Amino acid sequence: MNIRTDILLRVYIAFGVIVLFAFAVLFKLFHVQIVEGKKWRAMADSLSTRYVNVEAVRGNIYSVDGSLLATSVPEYELRMDLLAGGIEKNEIFYEKVDSLAEKMSRFFGDKSEREYAGMLRQARKERSRYLLIKRNVTHQELSVIKKFPIFNMGRYKGGLIAVQKNKRILPFRSLAARTIGYRNEHVQPVGLEGAYGGFISGESGRRLMQRIAGGIWMPVNKDIEIAPKDGADIISTIDINMQDVAQNALLKQLIKSNADHGSVILMEVATGEVRAIANYTRTSEGIYKEKFNYAIAGNQDPGSTFKVASYMALLEDRAVDTSTLVETGNYKIPGHMIKDSHGSIGTVSVKRAFEESSNAAVAKLVNTVYREDQAKFTDHLYRWHLNEKLGLQIPGEASPVIKNPSNRSWNKNMTLPQMAYGYEMQLTPLKMLTFYNAIANNGKYVSPIFVREIRRLGSTIERFETRVINEKICSDETLKKMREMLEGVVNEGTGKGIIYNPLYKVAGKTGTAQVADGNKGYRAKRQYQASFCGYFPADMPKYSLIVVINGPKNGYYAAQVAGPPFREIADKIYASDVEMYTPVRERYVGNTKMPASKAGYKRSTQKVYKALGIKAFLASNSEFVNTVDTNNGVAVRDVKIVPGTVPDVTGMGLKDAVFLLSNAGLKPVVKGSGKVVKQLPEPGGKLIKGHPISIELK
């Protein structure tokens, strides 16, 4: 092979390799662009831009009286685009940067003027477009910052970027804090915030963000692409004034008793609306905070407050009457002696045994009547739904534990008599209160409610009415006797002298229960629960109330521990609610004089009389009238306005008098207050426009 052929062959091979490589590159480009294009474009987008959720403004939570319990306020994260349109030119930026640094240093107070100036200059050199200036800036502070040099050039020119975030605040701080609750994706929802988070949270918006140098994400556009939808408002049943009274009374007693924890619930009898609910746990000596909702989740033996259910069953089955005699003191059952802590009061009536809270008496009665058919007793409790949850509007309700003879833990010798006085069961304070509320509500057993309605933009989207669990828990005869017995506790029994108030009647029951210490039982360490549950005014019940104090160190009897806060709450609510006062009889006397009215505009006078329920037929052709006699009806005379003469404003109030005189062209000079008794010039004289007129009022 000659040299020429050899060279050509090598050239052809080299050319062929280049062509093949070119075709391979073109094929790969085609494959990447067309075949895998969708995949790589999506990856590129995910790495450089993405949509993020924009939090909606959470709805407010209001008390029943319109007070704001929880709301969201905007907070801002301030950043700066150092290459914004208004400061693209170096001379503009460097001319004003020191002034901006001086303003920020003085306003924020966290860095010196030199430090701020250095930070801004360095960010300018690095061509930063999303420099962090400050976090947690309020709306009021933002309004001031927008007036700083450079930032005052406008939204797009000055480079100020305000990223809004929402901060939840409680205007009344600790008041009803546990009931208001919170919503957190990582823990069990709590209170109204948790239960109604779907309504309160609203709908998140969407915003396109771009990743820039340093892995920081900044908005692509100044405006949000999809605006968020604000949350709905919750109208709760809580009354902020009653809540304040209840919390203060409970806290005061917990400190005085040096107790472990306690709770209080105030409920409106007819509707079941919870007006106040508080729970406190001791965190250190003399310091208590709301950490757990014992009112709805604190299952424990109710103790003597449960005797209401035991006596109701006995009365309903006609096994006893209030006058039936029963022994008190001690009652022996296999393996246990049931004692009365205050000792025997002898053989007394059922009513008296209830008033003095005799454990032995109720245990003996229940065990004697139902020993052969123990399910008959528990059937009453099940018919009253004491074994069922109340179906509350807020999460966390504990399941009641009411045994029956089919349970494996049922002891045919001990369980029944101990249940009679509130042991071997688990009930929450709210469950117990709801049962007492049914007695106050003429037997109608209603579920407690915490939310009255949900509103969006002022319009109601859902309203919650009272939910009736049982229309009638027992006969009217039994109800009447139970209410008399509950009043007797306060008037003659364990509540006498502590809860009794001569101004209004209170009905209720004390409850002192020994609490088990976990698996160690009752003997390991003596702990007590003191409670008082009742309603007021007893003759026309409007509110039911329970106070429970757990682990008191300074005394443990219910009357001394739970009685004072019950009395304090009831007294203050009664004093502030005139609807509970005994109505004063209206007495009418013949020839009653009607209320007098100032002279003035006839239609206004008629409107006032109508509002007072008085039929006043003002027979007059004039627009202005003067009442002259109210001894028998309302007699008036016309106030005639004659053009060119001084009008008569005698008897009128200041507003009507000035209106007439000014319209006539006169300048009133006023002395005194009340209604016009004298005017100069006198009525009917020649009118000189612009002339002063003196009017005296008394």
TrEMBL record:
GO terms for cellular component: plasma membrane. One of its GO terms (biological process) is cell wall organization. Residues 640-698 form the PASTA domain. InterPro entries: Beta-lactam/transpept, Beta-lactam/transpept-like, PASTA_dom, PBP_dimer, PBP_dimer_sf, PCN-bd_Tpept. Pfam families: PASTA, PBP_dimer, Transpeptidase. GO terms for molecular function: carboxypeptidase activity; penicillin binding. The chain crosses the membrane at residues 7-30. It comes from the Bacteria. Keywords: Carboxypeptidase, Cell cycle, Cell division, Hydrolase, Membrane, Protease, Transmembrane, Transmembrane helix. It is found in: Membrane. This is Cell division protein. It comes from Pararcticibacter amylolyticus. The lineage of its organism: Bacteria, Pseudomonadati, Bacteroidota, Sphingobacteriia, Sphingobacteriales.
